[in-house]
């Protein structure tokens, strides 16, 4: 089984050229988002790859109550609408509650379920009922085969437009490990398009005491490994200045490094998916 999920002329399929999902962890301002969109679209155009712009209006699962959570849904909706009007770019963002699904559905193209919430039945049903594409992050605590139960909650609610994202599994405390078998298991046994999240896979959850740490230098290595398996998409959060980013700076890739990294991923992707 090798399902295809389409968004306009963008095709998510495990044996098709990978789609890039990229952007900063959290939405900071219209000006910053405008700059990021413009530069990522330029890179995608030069490399002839499809792009989905990723950013979050609310980081509801930050380690500390003192951490910056983002602009919130109301301000972010206005910015999403401006970005889509100016750049005609598809947008993906996370939701955290049933109410948010209806609030955001007309302003983004893909609804993302955070890994920590991937078994929340009411949230999955509400997301499914928007009829949007649903990208579910596999929980760090789940085996890849467990995702069939997550998928069934969405398909039984009438939505077959599902992406499954691997973002690492818990390995002791404050650490994640990426098992590349997970990608193949979800591809072969569940059949929906599989995405590999390279930057969250190098995160160190809660590793800095009051916030998460990470090591972005390993993200391109894991991305290359996932490309060698063959996936429908590569997810990489990026920022022009990760050291100053309000969220997930340690595991984000510098914007000016993206093109070089993507060129290598495209080479591997083309080799693996040669007909």
Give the SSE layout.
Layout: E1 5-7, E2 10-12, E3 19-23, H1 30-47, E4 51-54, H2 73-87, E5 91-94, H3 98-104, E6 110-113, H4 121-128, E7 133-137, H5 147-155, E8 162-166, E9 169-170, E10 176-177, H6 181-190, E11 194-197, E12 203-204, E13 213-214, H7 219-229, E14 233-239, E15 253-254, H8 258-272
Parallel strand pairs: 3-4, 3-14, 4-5, 5-6, 6-7, 7-8, 8-11, 11-14, 14-15
Antiparallel strand pairs: 1-2, 9-10, 12-13
Structural class designation: alpha/beta
Task: Sum up the overall morphology in one term.
Answer: globular
- Sheet with the most strands: spatial strand order: 3-4-5-6-7-8-11-14
Secondary structure: number of strands: 15
CATH topology, which one?
Answer: TIM Barrel
What is the residue-averaged pLDDT? 93
Low-confidence stretches: none
Q: Can you describe this structure?
A:
By secondary structure, this protein is α/β, with parallel strands linked by helices. It has one domain: Alpha-Beta Barrel (TIM Barrel), CATH 3.20.20.70. Helix content is 34%, strand content 20%. It is built from eight helices and 15 strands. The protein has helices at 30-47, 73-87, 98-104, 121-128, 147-155, 181-190, 219-229, 258-272; strands at residues 5-7, 10-12, 19-23, 51-54, 91-94, 110-113, 133-137, 162-166, 169-170, 176-177, 194-197, 203-204, 213-214, 233-239, 253-254. The strands form four sheets. An eight-stranded parallel barrel has the order 3-4-5-6-7-8-11-14, surrounded by five helices. The chain has a two-stranded antiparallel ribbon with strand order 1-2. A hairpin with an 8-residue loop joins β12 (203-204) and β13. α1 runs parallel beside α2 (73-87), α4 crosses α5 (147-155) and α7 runs parallel beside α8 (258-272). The chain is globular and about 45 Å long. It starts with a strand and ends with a helix. The mean pLDDT is 93.
């Amino acid at each position: 089984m090798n399902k295809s999920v389409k968004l306009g002329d963008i095709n998510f399929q495990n044996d098709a050229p990978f789609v890039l999902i990229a952007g900063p962890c959290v939405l900071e301002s219209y000006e910053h988002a405008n700059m990021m969109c413009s530069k990522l679209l330029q890179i995608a155009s030069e490399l002839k790859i499809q792009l989905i712009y990723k950013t979050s209006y609310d980081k509801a699962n930050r380690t500390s109550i003192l951490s910056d959570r983002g602009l919130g849904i109301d301000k972010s909706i206005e910015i999403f609408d401006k970005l889509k009007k100016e750049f005609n770019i598809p947008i993906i963002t996370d939701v955290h509650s049933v109410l948010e699904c209806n609030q955001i559905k007309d302003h983004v193209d893909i609804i993302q379920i955070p890994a920590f919430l991937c078994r929340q039945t009411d949230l999955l049903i509400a997301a499914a009922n928007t009829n949007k594409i649903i990208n579910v992050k596999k929980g760090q605590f789940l085996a890849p085969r467990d995702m069939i139960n997550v998928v069934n909650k969405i398909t039984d609610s009438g939505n077959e437009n599902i992406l499954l994202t691997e973002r690492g599994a818990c390995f002791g405390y404050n650490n994640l490990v990426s098992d590349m078998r997970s990608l193949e298991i979800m591809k072969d046994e569940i059949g929906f398009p599989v995405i590999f999240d390279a930057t969250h896979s190098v995160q160190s959850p809660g590793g800095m005491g009051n916030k998460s740490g990470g090591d972005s230098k390993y993200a391109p290595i894991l991305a290359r490994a996932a490309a060698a398996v063959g996936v429908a998409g590569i997810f990489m959060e990026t920022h022009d200045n990760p050291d100053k980013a309000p969220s997930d700076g340690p595991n984000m890739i510098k914007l000016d490094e993206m093109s070089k990294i993507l060129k290598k991923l495209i080479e591997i992707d083309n080799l693996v998916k040669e007909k």
